[in-house]
Amino acid sequence: MTFVRIGGVPHHVVTGGSGPVCVLSAGLGMSWFDWDPVVPHLVPYRTVVRFDRPGHGLSAPAAVPPTAAGEADRIAAVLDALGHRGPATVVGHSIAGFHAEAFARLHPDRTAGLVLVDSSVEEDPRPSRTTAPARLLGAVLCAAGLPAALGPAVRNLTVRAGTVRRGTPGTDTDPAPVGTGPALARTDPALVRRVYRTSRVLRGTLLENAHYGAVAAELLALREDRPLPPGLPVTVLAAPDGSARWERRQRALARRLGARYEAAEPSGHLVMRDRPDAVARAVLDVGSRRKGA
Question: Per-residue confidence at 184, pLDDT binned at 50, 70, 90?
């Protein structure tokens, strides 16, 4: 665990393993430890880099609002700070799928493969005219002490809603897995409290959400101007979870990117928790496809 300063903002970064580099970026409001179930499958074969975006996990608050290009450059800067200047496989979950795709388009020479894990999809994004309501909401909720009182509980509900639970109902309260070994069923509520009781994470989540439409629109423009590298192996790993409409949209995304489509079943939106094996296979597969290209 370490911190690197990017644009004046301390970013929390965790690395492990050896071999070709892959970088994992989680969805809105998520933290580095949400990838913990995937890491044991990857570290024997890959150098795994996880980082928290500003206002997420243990990283400091954002200095500027997020943009697609800014998030792509952030991934490049994290890798630079760690001394990884060669091509990397970039994995983006949910909203971070926008960032991972933008990285591949804006930094093609540094992209070895692309894996979009139940990525956000916007065919006709509508950027917000103002983010003032989000800032006001954050200020009101923080002044009322809501993050400290309810942050961990909201986090827990979010994880439950995003996963397909197996085992005895009522025995898994989320939070972050402890360690990276086989004992991933154990959890560390203290770590979740440390992260999600802060106003910083609430404000960071609201800020990203407020700029969601603008980032999506920027990515659509990049698709017109900045093609993906020829022959780049891309996988869209989706979690349809019984939704035919979501499956159609994910398949359409795969066609648009010339990607391989795979369904992670059974799985909720948090595929890295429900099907860490499927995520790891997708990462290793794009690496082998690149090598054999």
Answer: very low
